[in-house]
Amino acid sequence: MYRDVVIVGAGHAGAELASTLRRKGFGGSILLVGDEPVAPYERPPLSKACLLGTIEIERILLRESDYWSTAAIELALGCAATALDAEKDGLQLSDGRHVDFAWCVLATGGKVRKLNCPGSDLAGIYYLRTLRDVQAIGAAIGEARRLVVIGGGFIGLEVAAAARQLGKEVALIETQRRVLARVTSPVVSSFYEALHRQRGVRLLLGSAISGLEGEGQVSGVRLADGTVEPADLVVVGIGIDADTGLAEQAGLACDAGILVDEACRTSQPRILAIGDCSRHPNDFAGGLWRLESVQHANDSAGAAADTILGNPGIYREVPTFWSDQYECRLQTAGLTKDADEIVVRGDAGQVPFSVVYLQEGRVVAVDAINAPKDFMAARHLVRSGARPDRKLLADPSIALKSLA
Ligand code: FAD
Predict the structure, then answer these.
(1) Where are the beta strands (DSSP E) in 68-201?
(2) Which residues contact 346 (CB under 8 A, 6 or more apart)?
């Protein structure tokens, strides 16, 4: 069979690409292949409302169920792409079909990193990436009294917050000396550490794990100092790796992600890559970046659509991200990596407040906590490379947008 566009991966990026192509008038055939057995859905609620059990599955679907047929987007769900021939423009599917294509877009996302210490194969240890994962956690969490979360990144902290809201005893283990160490400044980490401690989470920072204990079922997490943290349930959130299996097999250039240019083209220009699986040149941070966010999934899909429609442009969007924990929403614009100075707007111990990151006086990122107006303005400041006066910046009574 032949399709004009075949998209591998029916997550945020794949679904957004298919619908953007239609919205922009693409009339060719589109096949969206996804190995999960469900229509495209949002992942962010998995570690929030889905874990709390306060949202129905229908409400996290990315499109209404009749959208796909109405838009003439063919779905192959519960079906994996198993081999990609980059020379002959062909894709093999697990249901036995072979698809020739004009364009193939890889939107394969990421695979969770797994523990490989002794005991990591015990029952009661969960990872959180898919709807199936959250359903499994949901089925087990009711009986559990003590939950141990491994990893103090966004997913781990969101799971800890939800588990506390469900009344569980929660301990969170992080190897770094602070939570969110990879993505934010110590001042924001401290705020989240205090928030979680106030809500009753036991934070074990700077703690390495030497193994998991139990007879068939996990009963505790052993730390490097020999102490054992009792657990009825363990949720692990130690990051993902880009899913590059298909791309590597096809001989496409990969290096901790599928390498793409500014128009989402891989080393084979009729094959594109978007979303979490791709590593792209990022103007705002310099160098190649692999971003894990809904914004990047959606905006890179938009750039790929332009490439397919014959108007390849330059993907240049300010990276944004959000995280909800308890009643606090963190919204980030830009990337904090190269900042050499930070300015706090407000009292860093109390919401709302924002942290502005500067590099040689230029705004490169803003973390806004319960401060949506600062976040909105932040995108403009980062995009324009604004150099505001530090005193005005530090004054929360002065609107950030007036400094753009
Ligand atoms: P994915 O959404 O992972 O989709 C990839 C799909 O491809 C998957 O369904 C996968 O199974 C499928 N696939 C892979 N290989 C094949 C194959 N060979 N054949 C067929 N199908 C294949 N981002 C935010 O900005 N804010 C948040 O608050 C936030 N919270 C999150 C909470 C959780 C629990 C998780 C897991 C992620 C969260 N993210 C959040 C990140 C965000 O969801 C991801 O960045 C986004 O989903 C990436 O979209 P994607 O399409 O690139 O990958």
Answers:
(1) 73-77, 81-85, 90-93, 98-106, 110-112, 125-127, 146-150, 169-174
(2) 352, 353, 354, 371, 396
Structure tokens of 311?
């108007």
Measure the CA–CA gap between 145 and 353, rounded to whole angstroms. Answer: 34
Does 81 contact ligand 1 (Cβ within 6 A)?
A: yes
CB distance 243 to ligand 1 below 6 Å: yes
Q: How far is the CA of 290 from the centre of ligand 1 (A)?
A: 13
Specify the pairing of strand 73-77 against strand 30-34: parallel
Helix, strand or coil, per DSSP, at residue 392: helix
Residue 156 Cβ inside 6 Å of ligand 1? The answer reads no
Ligand 1 atom closest to the CA of 33, numbered from 1: 20
CA 11 to ligand 1 center in whole angstroms: 5
**107 CB near ligand 1 (under 6 Å):** yes
CA 149, 153, 159 angle in degrees (round to 5)?
A: 45
Give yes or no for residue 276 CB within 6 A of ligand 1. Answer: yes
In DSSP notation, 287-306 reads SEE---SHHHHHHHHHHHHH
Is 362 in a helix, a strand, or coil? strand
Alpha-carbon span 91 to 86, nearest angstrom = 9
Average pLDDT across the chain, whole number: 97
**Cα–Cα dist 385/365, whole Å:** 10
Q: Is 370 exposed, middle or buried (0-12, 13-18, 19+ CB in 10 A)?
A: middle
Smallest CA separation from ligand 1 atom 33, residue: 44
Place of tokens 């505001």: 388
Per-residue pLDDT reduced to its tens digit, 1-52: 999 999 999 999 999 999 999 999 999 999 999 999 999 999 999 999 999 9
Asked if pLDDT for residue 283 goes beyond 90, the answer is: no
Could you tell me the distance, in angstroms and rounded to a whole number, from the CA of residue 276 to the centre of ligand 1? 7
